[in-house]
Amino acid sequence: MSTLEQTFSRNRAIEADLFEMNSITKKPRMTREDRARFDFLSVRVSALKAGYSPEEVAEQQVNSRLVREGQKPINFKRERAGQLTSRNGFSELTSMVMRKSSAT
Length: 104
Description:
Layout: H1 3-25, H2 32-49, H3 54-68, H4 76-80, H5 90-103
């Protein structure tokens, strides 16, 4: 992916996250789930603005979840190189995170 494509992808993700954050703040009362989602989006936007790609943010999210569940984190560089198989539910977790990311 070229630098221009990466920048475009990052900017689209930021725009989508800010749109969702805006819709959350327009609610008369925010639930705990709304607050947690807003906080997550805020951290994600900060990471994207710092130069991380949406994929890197999603990978970090997957690894954070695995560590919380007591499993070993995934080395995504090796995964992309085809050196790992579907370990720790990698396919399932990644697709779940990517669906959530693209929905925002």
